[in-house]
Amino acid sequence: MFGKSDATDKDIIEGLQADPATRKRYEYVLYRRFAYLVPSRPGKYRLSEDEARDAYTDSFLAVVDNILSGKFRGEASLKTYISRIFRNKCVDRFRKNSTVKVEWLDEFQDISDPSKDFLRKLMGKEEMIGLVQWLKKLGERCQV
Known about the structure:
Strand content: under 5%
Oligomer: single chain
Number of strands: 0
Distance between the termini: 100 Å
Shape: rod-shaped
Helix content: 55-70%
Largest sheet: none
């Protein structure tokens, strides 16, 4: 019953739909049967071994949930079904890891160190120098 090749797809599906004790045994059988898929994905999708294992666990849980909810129609073998879901989970993790996050600084408001005050003073001095230069261009009458 617990051997890797003993149970058929039909046995596993029926076992998962049985009483809770039987279900646990068949969850174990299903998980172990396709665990060999894990080493094939990390390199292909630039995932760590832990990320690949997590993706496989997510896939396994999705397959069990789909079998119990009736979403699994049996049009493909369990191997094909879990393999496709596992591939999609790996792709999702790859995309999540490869997205570039950009943070914008808005007038140095987010700087939380002493350089913030220095930069503001420097900007203030530059603005003051510009103002003085404009006043000089206006002439003496406007400077009073």
